[in-house]
Structure to design on (273 residues):
């Protein structure tokens, strides 16, 4: 856990993410890259080049000033922090930064969204979950001295989830946390008998070359089951693979990872497939 990216908009929500990153950084000697992406309006972008340049310079200087205040906090003492400002709010740039600095994790603060707003607008955290190639930790409330002891990892144990599992297992090992795996069994077309569920789980664990116990938890929906199970096990983090579906695909098919990141009070970590 050497390098962590924290996208910020200088709000209280993004400070919650920064405090969490600082807590992790002090335990692992991590460097934090604090990223701010400027939001330049379309009207500015259609103005003449001189106006655009002037506005960009103004916003860059304002961001630098805000960084000075935002990063002048006691909880960052002893932590290496590198501020980064990007001119446009393009989420692909986060992947470029993560790749350039070989980041292990992105930490986002979130208020959470739901319903039709979540489909057509979405929170910044939801967009990050949908686009980021490295694991994303979404956190809503401040947790003093954040520590991960119990890491719940949920998936349907299809073999396409193996890369996400390996990333989650490696991260859990780094955090020296207990990995608790769960399969949520639901009524209807997706229901599996206990025998069939364990057959699927055992094949997954064999392919993963992992020796771990998996619990089967019954509920009316996958989202509800994961949240209920996480609460019952006092999870410090709920880990999930996500397909990162976009646009109309997200409207019709949804993304369990994004939905749970929005609804969960427990911090959620997503691993993009």
């Amino acid at each position: 856990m050497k390098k962590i990216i924290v996208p910020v908009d200088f709000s209280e929500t993004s400070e919650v993410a920064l405090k969490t990153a600082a807590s992790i950084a002090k335990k692992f000697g991590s460097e934090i890259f604090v990223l701010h992406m400027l939001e330049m309006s379309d009207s500015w972008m259609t103005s003449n080049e001189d106006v655009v340049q002037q506005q960009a310079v103004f916003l860059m200087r304002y961001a630098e000033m805000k960084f000075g205040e935002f990063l002048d906090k006691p909880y960052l003492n002893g932590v290496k922090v590198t501020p980064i400002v990007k001119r446009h709010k393009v989420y692909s740039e986060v992947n470029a930064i993560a790749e350039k600095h070989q980041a292990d994790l992105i930490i986002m603060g979130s208020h959470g969204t739901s319903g039709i707003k979540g489909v057509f607008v979405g929170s910044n955290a939801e967009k990050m979950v949908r686009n980021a190639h490295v694991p994303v930790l979404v956190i809503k409330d401040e947790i003093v001295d954040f520590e991960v002891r119990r890491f719940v990892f949920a998936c349907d144990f299809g073999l396409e989830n193996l890369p996400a599992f390996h990333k989650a297992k490696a991260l859990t090992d780094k955090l020296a946390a207990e990995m608790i795996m769960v399969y949520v069994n639901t009524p209807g077309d997706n229901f599996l008998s206990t025998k069939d569920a364990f057959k699927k789980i055992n094949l997954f664990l064999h392919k993963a070359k992992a020796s771990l116990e998996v619990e089967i938890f019954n509920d009316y929906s996958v989202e509800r089951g994961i949240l209920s199970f996480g609460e019952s096990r006092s999870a410090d983090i709920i880990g999930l693979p996500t397909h990162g579906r976009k646009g109309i695909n997200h409207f019709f098919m949804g993304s369990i990872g994004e939905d749970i990141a929005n609804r969960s009070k427990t911090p959620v970590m997503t691993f993009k497939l």
Q: What stands out?
A: DSSP finds eleven helices and ten strands in the chain. Residues 49-70 form the longest helix (22 residues).
